[in-house]
Amino acid sequence: MRDERQPCVYIRASQPRGTLYIGVTSNLLKRLWQHRNGDTPGFTARHRVHHLVRFELFGDMERAILREKQLKRWHRQWKIGLIESDNPDWHDLVPGLGLPLKAPRAGSYGS
């Protein structure tokens, strides 16, 4: 896994229009790997929020943190609209970043 340092805000979903999680990181690939391998216990693991549905890159961490805080204050429908403006079918964006999709479990999002 490459060490790609780039401030980023990301949105993960349990399923289309399901539970959402908004986070910020300086290394999106590393954070996705941590989520996938259970290295980050908590909300995303408990609620099975495993699918990357949106991310925004920033030039500095301060702006990324400000954007994360802004998005967290938004109404749920605004967040859904933002996701669907670029990803109307709620595709998991992980493969486009070079990580394989995790095998879906029966009845889960993506199966």
From TrEMBL:
All copies of domain GIY-YIG, residue ranges: 5-81
SUPFAM superfamilies from the UniProt entry: GIY-YIG endonuclease
Family under the similarity heading: Belongs to the UPF0213 family.
PANTHER family: BSL5627 PROTEIN, UPF0213 PROTEIN YHBQ
The name this protein goes by in its record: GIY-YIG nuclease family protein
Organism: Novosphingobium aerophilum
